[in-house]
């Protein structure tokens, strides 16, 4: 299954186990006991799987603050810092 940044393999493994056990015909309560989750959490994963027509169970995108720096800005700062490793942030801000 695809993995998102900062997502542990164990989360995806549990989601996969939930679907696999469900396809074996076990109840939500039995699945919950097997994987160590609440039945409503198991139901949520099963519903997502059914509603997404069997697509891999990925973590949904989260809302949040947009990045302050663009990727090219980050690359510029990284390159600058590689050339001058002990430069302070104030000096980097002035020169970049």
TrEMBL record:
SUPFAM superfamilies according to UniProt: Homeodomain-like
Q: Where is this protein localized, as stated in its record?
A: Nucleus
Any one GO CC term of this protein is: nucleus
Principal cellular location given in the protein's record: nucleus
The record's InterPro entries line, in alphabetical order, gives: Homeodomain-like_sf
Protein known as = Uncharacterized protein
